[in-house]
Design a protein that fits this description.
Layout: H1 33-57, H2 62-98, H3 102-127, H4 132-152, H5 157-177, H6 181-187, H7 194-234, H8 243-267, H9 269-276, H10 280-313, H11 333-341, H12 347-351, H13 354-357, H14 362-365
Helix pairs in contact: 1-2, 1-5, 2-3, 2-4, 2-5, 2-8, 2-9, 3-4, 4-8, 5-7, 5-8, 6-7, 7-8, 7-10, 8-10, 9-10
Length: 369
């Protein structure tokens, strides 16, 4: 007799071996990451240029500090998104050349964010006035870009790409919405009194946040749907995107806005304090703007997540029910069990009365005969 090995051959094993390089076992890439990186860098450059123009056109001293504090949120949010977009494009490039490795992907994402942060800090220091406010903007923007790169190192690259695309669309909408603020103020009853102006400003801000959240959710859903179809064309066995990916993508722009606010309040605290110390009106304005940014981020987060989930739910087919069974098949689970038990050799057949089972031949009922 030949001695058999205790190992089970691969062809005879119950569970098929999973190929680590197969599309079903590796994370999906983020299509269009290079285009998103170019758009995000262009938006960051536009924010840096507009901030520089605002600061240099103002009178030196008090007004420059105030305008720097007002422009800080736009620069930080743009640097955060640009760092994520460039890191995402770099991660796709590394995955194509060296395969998908978690450590390599995260290191490349951090490196991409650092490159964006370094370039942003150099651009600010070389083109802005050399003041304490300029140094705060440069350092905080560099930190935001690195944090954005770290966010892009996550395994769910399509969701990160959807967040970046939705955030860029939201930024563009905010700029376009600024032209509709004055008509909306009149629509919401802004008058000569201070209270009417405050109430109108509150409703204008809520309207902007609501529309921005809807736009963010729809853009995130559209990007994920397009990314899924593009990947499936090349890899039919690629895993499907579940509802958590759409939930994360829809809520992503709001999360980025809240993360940018945290970075502003930590890294830009000294600049905000300088602006608030200028006058009582500046202190009230800085407090009001900070509260408004937090409220806007929360609205965009929840409305965007809800919009993305609703859009994803409308793509799902009807659930399978018992009415889909064939007409000649068993109607219930109990009927299927009864049919199986009535087959020869089943447990019910052996438990039956021998007289009923072998009544056709009495000799078979008594083995002694």
């Amino acid at each position: 007799m030949t001695k058999q090995s205790g190992r089970v051959p691969a062809a005879e094993s119950d569970e098929p071996a999973v190929d680590a390089a197969s599309p079903s076992s590796r994370p999906l890439p983020a299509p269009g990451a290079s285009v998103l990186a170019l758009l995000a860098l262009g938006w960051l450059a536009a924010m840096l240029w507009s901030t520089r123009e605002a600061i240099t056109s103002a009178a030196a001293g008090v007004t420059a500090i105030s305008l720097s504090a007002f422009a800080l949120p736009g620069v930080i949010s743009a640097a955060l998104v640009a760092g994520a977009a460039v890191a995402l494009a770099g991660g796709n490039l590394l995955a194509r050349r060296y395969g998908d490795r978690a450590t390599l992907r995260f290191a490349g994402a951090i490196g991409g964010g650092m490159l964006v942060g370094l370039a942003t800090a150099l651009a600010i220091n070389l083109t802005y006035f050399d003041t304490s406010a300029t140094n705060v903007i440069a350092g905080t923007a560099a930190a935001a870009a690195i944090i954005g790169g770290a966010v892009a190192g996550a395994r769910t690259a399509p969701a990160v790409g959807a967040v970046v695309s939705a955030a860029l669309g939201t930024f563009l909408f905010v700029v376009a919405f600024s032209r509709a603020r004055d008509p909306l103020f009149d629509l919401f009853g802004a008058g000569d009194s201070q209270q009417s102006l405050i109430d109108a400003a509150k409703w204008v801000s809520r309207t902007e946040s609501l529309i921005a959240g809807l736009l963010a959710g729809l853009l995130a859903f559209g990007y994920l749907t397009w990314a899924r179809r593009r990947v499936v064309r090349r890899h039919p066995e690629a895993p499907a995107l579940r509802w958590p990916a759409y939930l994360l993508a829809g809520a992503g722009p709001g999360l980025l806005l809240l993360l940018a606010e945290v970075i502003i309040r930590i890294g830009g605290r000294s600049l905000l304090d300088l602006a608030s110390a200028l006058s009582e009106a500046d202190a009230v304005a800085q407090t009001s703007l900070g509260t408004s940014r937090v409220d806007n981020g929360i609205w965009v987060l929840f409305v965007g997540a809800l919009a993305a989930l609703i859009a994803f739910g409308r793509t799902l087919g009807p659930a399978h029910t018992d009415d889909d069974e064939p007409a000649d098949g068993p109607d219930t689970v109990a009927d299927r069990v009864d049919q199986e038990d009535d087959k020869p050799g089943s447990a019910r057949a052996f438990d039956a009365d021998p007289a009923e089972t072998f009544d056709a031949d009495p000799a078979k009922a008594d083995p002694a005969r």
